[in-house]
Every structure is written in C-alpha cells, then in structure tokens.
Amino acid sequence: MARLPRLRRPRLRRRPINAAADPRTEAPTEEAPTEVKPAEPAGGEPEEPRPRRRWRPRRPRPSRRAKLAGGAALLLGAGVVAAAAAGLFESDEDPPPAPVAPPPQPAETTPSEERPVAEAAAQLGFPVFATKNTTRVGGATPTADAAGVALATFPSAGGVEPPRAVALAGEDDLAGALAAAVLMAEPLRVPLLLSTPDELPEESEQALAALAPEGGAETRGAQLLAIGDVEAPDGLKVTRVGAGGPAALAAAIDRLRGELTGIEPEHVVVAPLANPAFAMPAAAWAARSGDPVLFAAADSLPKATAKALQRHRDARVYVLGPSSAISSRVVRQISRAADGAVRRVSGEDPVSNAIEFARYADGNFGWNINDPGHGFVLASSGRPLDAAAAAPLSASGTWGPLLLTDSADTLPGALRGYLLDVKPGYRSDPTRAFYNHIWIIGDQEAIDVSQQAAVDDLAELARIGGKPEREPTRDGGGGGSS
C-alpha cells in the first residue's frame, strides 16, 4: 500500500504568537539577506537544472501527526490569550462588542521541537483564534484556508480515518474550485486543496502529507483528483479531470462524480460566471448535497452547460443570482435544455443573495435555515475562492450554509438582521437549548476581529423572558416546573 512522506517541519521565522490573529500587532520584519548568486561553472556554461524531487509517498508517523494536532490546539489557546491581552476586541464602533473572557494561559511545557510544527499549523490556516461561538480559519490566502479547512475536517490524528482522496484545483481557477466542492459530498468525502500549474504550494504540500490519502474503491484507487491544469506531485495515483473553459471543466467534474458514485443528482445549480460573489454560496450546497454546480454567462448559455443539463433532464434546476448576473433570456435557454421549469434564488447583492439561499427551501432542495440551532460559515465576498476552500465545513461538523460579508470591519445590516432572526434562546435550562456556531474564513484583512466579535454576540444563546420558569424556594430547594 502506498505510504505518504512524514510531515516535514518547515524552517519558519519566529513570529508573535498572535501574528495570525492580528497583523497590526506583528513585529517588524527583518531585512531579507542579500541574495548570493551561485558562481558559474568553468567555461561559462550554465549548470544543468536539478531534477524535480520525486514525491515518495509514505504514511506519516502517528507521533508526528499527533504533534501537528496537539501543537495547533496549544496555539489555539495561546492565541486567544495573546489576542485578548493585546486588546484585539477593542473597537471604535458604537456599541462596542461584548468582551470575551480569555481561557487560562497554558503552562510553558511544550517541547521546543514541537513548536515549529505548531507554527506550521498556524501558517496552514488551522483554527488559531476563537470566541465562544465562532472559530476562525485565519489563512492569509485561500490556499492557506483550504489547507486549514481540510485539516480541521480530517484532523489526521487520534486514529481518525484519512480521506480516500484529495482534490487539487488551481489557485486561479475559481469555476473549477467551486464545482469541485461537490466531490466533498457523500459518499466520496474528498476535501479540496489548491495548487498552480507549475508547483504545489508549501501549504498544500504539508496538508497533503498530513492528510495521507490512501485511495479506495470510492475513487477507483485514485489518491488525488487533479482539476484542470495543476501541478500534481509524483508518486501518487492521480485522476485528471477535464480541461478547456470553466463551463466545460464544471461539466467534466459533474461527469466524474456520476461515474464514481453511480448517483444521478436530483437537482442542479447553475451559477453565474461573470459575478463570482453571487456564485460563492453554491459551493457549500454542493458539498452538503451532492448537487452539481454548472455555470452560465450573463447573456449566454455555454454549450457544455447545455449538454450537461440535457443529461440531467429529470433533475430540477435552480439558478443562483439575480437577472444582472444571469439574465431572464438565459434562464429560458436553461429551461429548454433541461426540459422543465427553472427556479431562481437571488438577492440584489452578494450578501443578501447568500442569505436568500440560506433561507430557501423547495421540497428537499435548499438549506431552509430560518430557526436557531445551526452551523454557519462566513467568508468575504472579496475573496471568492474562499467559498471553495471552506466548502468541507458545510458538509461536516455543524453543516451550515455560506454567508457573506462585503466589508472587512463592518457587519452588513442584512447579515445582522438574519443572524438576529436565527439567534438561539432558552427559557429555563441553557444546557438543553439549541446553539449556533459560525466558522470565520480568512485573516484580519478579510474579516476583522471586531466583526468576528459582533458575529459572536449575535450567535450567543439568550434568555427568553424575564424570569426562569423554575424558581428557588425559601429553604433553597427547587420549586415550580422546569
């Protein structure tokens, strides 16, 4: 059986423990050393390029994988303490966010050899900052966020079974990454990492080593599903998926899932190509449901999408986004290709569009989240690729829709209103109540910690009514009904 290499400890520059939480408090960086060019060989002939290192898959040692999770857990606690001490919850806005009590600071007992692993986990975007109702995957880029989400979904420690395979999409291929989110749905359960045509980024390489996909019958032995033009490491069994334009690649991913699972989808989501922020919520639903994501232009329907819709004539089709993103004329073309009625789910802007999709229900299609007791994922509309990176969180854990913010530091009014509508409450016993939890995707540049604090307050469990239904008696015993 193929074995992946052990997780290498990267050589990292020392940074403040809360550097991932707030770059405004980051220590000044040292000047980079002057690059020294290697001397030319005798005769002036350039040296032959070194051959590309071959990926030699070996299963990581359990102790190393345990160190990764343990180091990240320690960093989580320490990061909260440092962030609170640095005053990261202070805000100039009115009203100020509710204070959050920091947990006890961990003792300085971490072995020095484990600290580079913990720092590597932080760079990968592993959750390093949390409030009582939110957890942040604080990657500086979608590539780091994808690696962090994959590790949070498949912790790769404590005997947790690794994923059968990992999908690899391009950092500049938004359509392919969004469409690949469907591979996370049952029964495949394939998380997403990001790459480039030339090399596998370090964050993705480290996450791939930690995930250690082994292949299986579900993926026909493939350990890696390469989406489009991406660099895949040698030494793994790779299935390459499609080429061509965005619509053709999405249709190819749809065909691959059908071939691997033998499942015909009940629904199809058609998302806009020209307005990526309106397309973002489709990734979360695809990962949750297994419904494929196809694409349309604002004023035309690509041939690849039309052919895919003809293959799914028994499926209901839903267009995501307003008429400015996909025109009514294109909706009629979609209806002819699908040989049936088409329903539109939309909001006038990306924030309200995501909320409408979270609220929507039509039979067994749609999240239908109009009450408390759910998970949510919050990303910035300015980083569309984060929707694909975060999609596995919508298909595991607290299973929730993607919500969007269009500002780094200010919570949009429509989002505030929605979170108030689904705010959880209790009458007498908070331990028997329903709870909301929200994943925050991206670093401070994407979503500021002041906005995270406001979101935390809106997700907080609140008492309903002035007095508890169960009141103490004079002798200290309980009285009344529970």
Write structural notes for this entry.
- By secondary structure, the chain is α/β, with parallel strands linked by helices.
- The protein has one domain.
- 30% of the residues lie in helices and 14% in strands.
- The chain is built from 14 helices and 17 strands.
- The protein has helices at 62-85, 115-123, 142-153, 174-180, 202-211, 246-261, 276-279, 281-289, 303-311, 328-338, 350-359, 385-390, 413-421, 449-459; strands spanning 129-130, 134-137, 166-170, 192-195, 224-227, 238-241, 267-272, 293-296, 316-320, 342-345, 375-380, 402-405, 425-426, 437-441, 462-463, 470-472, 478-480.
- The strands form 5 sheets. Strands 1-2-14-11-12 form a 5-stranded mixed sheet. A 4-stranded parallel sheet has the order 4-3-5-6, sandwiched between helices. A 4-stranded parallel sheet has the order 8-7-9-10.
- Helix 4 (174-180) packs parallel to helix 6 (246-261).
- It is globular and about 60 Å long.
- The N and C termini lie far apart (57 Å).
- The relative contact order is 0.12.
- Residues 1-47, 49-54, 56-115 and 471-482 have low confidence and may be disordered.
